[in-house]
Amino acid sequence: MTRPDPLTAPFGAFALSPMAETFRRLPMAMPGDALRRSAESVVRRALMSGGRDIADIEVFPGQFARVHLRDNRCEKRVFAGSKSWDSAERRAIRDAMATKPAGETFVFVDAGANAGLYTLSVLADAAAQSRPVKVIAVEPDVENRRRLEFNLDVSKASAVTVLPYALGAEEGEGAMVQSATNRGEVHVASGSETGDTIRLRPLKAALAEAGTGRVDVMKMDIEGFEAPVLNGFFAESPRSLWPTMILLETRHEAAITDGAAGLCLEHGYELAKQMRQNAVLVLPTGDPS
């Protein structure tokens, strides 16, 4: 049988058999994080053992994705672990959403959206809470953005604005450096690195283009470029535009006071939660705007 072309095949062309899909979902019903994660690992290895590298799945309730299992770590993890994948981070976003007054739109910025898994998670949570939502997904990499837009299309997501450039401290151009092993590690070049030329836009300009004057939560994962982007944003933007909550990767920092998280702390944010790889920072209630 000829293998479908993942670039053109409709969603469902890489669907699992009913038995394999039942097996994939088994860990979701297991109690306890440790047991669930162990089961996810077993299920993932078993379902990939025959050479499977792509699967069309319901990744979160009502949200669908074509996941690529060999070249993107987050897609591989969520394949059999959609309940455990970044569960503490996603819970923090979900809890922030739940505190909004009923009927008020929840505004989420997915900076470094990759294949759109955080965006899809937020859309699923908004549906579960009967909450209007506006998502701004920023993804400069051509292949990651293709996957993001495919997943949004098959999920019939209409509340998402996709911005096809990288965030920068100022308007200009940069280079996008690819990763040979993990598409989640593509990044804007620094130093002597070279890559494909991409557009850079400040975060303030990106938010204006997307038509929002406030942000409830921003997840920013732009592979080490967070500090210059945030430094420029804080310098030129009114506090009313600053996200109420920022989720940042901190696993490469020696201390929370280093890097982008430290910059947020300097500008009045407080550390609300520290996970193994990420930190949640929030503006205190009543912070002047």
Automatic annotation (TrEMBL):
Pfam hit, one: Methyltransf_21
Domain Methyltransferase FkbM: 110-254
Keywords assigned: Methyltransferase, Transferase
Coiled coil start-end: none
Name recorded for this polypeptide: FkbM family methyltransferase
GO biological process, one term: methylation
GO molecular function: methyltransferase activity
SUPFAM superfamilies, alphabetized: S-adenosyl-L-methionine-dependent methyltransferases (SSF53335)
Record bears the keyword ATP-binding: no
Keyword set includes Ion transport: no
